[in-house]
């Protein structure tokens, strides 16, 4: 029996075209065959209109509302980054954050009764990856 939720890209949650991935569900204590790592379905959000703070403040608030935060990174404007050095992004304060949570908590992230007044939460949209080369296979 196949389930559509098991045929997805575990990083983006999007279905892949033409590629079917089945993720097993069976538990067996006496089998030597084991998964290398536990796969967690993730959802990514943009949290903005936040008074400048550290990412730990965002994580602490979300965890206090029973949201399992897998990662949280400040989103910095280019004007905020020094031109001559790479910032220690994890320790930067920001007004916007990219937050990754377990997909089972995505409804909590979208619940206006959990999110503080005037803070904006949106689905995070990753930029499309550009092809490695611009060679057009149809004309060549």
From TrEMBL:
<protein>
    <submittedName>
        <fullName>Uncharacterized protein</fullName>
    </submittedName>
</protein>
């Amino acid at each position: 029996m196949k389930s559509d939720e098991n045929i997805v890209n575990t990083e983006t949650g999007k279905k892949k075209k033409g590629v079917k991935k089945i993720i097993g569900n069976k538990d067996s204590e006496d089998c030597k065959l084991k998964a290398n790592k536990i796969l967690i379905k993730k959802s990514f959000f943009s949290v903005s209109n936040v008074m400048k703070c550290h990412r730990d403040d965002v994580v602490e608030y979300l965890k206090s509302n029973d949201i399992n935060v897998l990662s949280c990174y400040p989103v910095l404007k280019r004007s905020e980054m020094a031109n001559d050095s790479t910032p220690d992004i994890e320790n930067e304060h920001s007004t916007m954050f990219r937050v990754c949570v377990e997909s089972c908590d995505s409804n909590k992230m979208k619940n206006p009764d959990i999110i503080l007044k005037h803070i904006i939460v949106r689905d995070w949209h990753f930029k499309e990856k550009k092809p490695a080369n611009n060679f057009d296979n149809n004309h060549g």
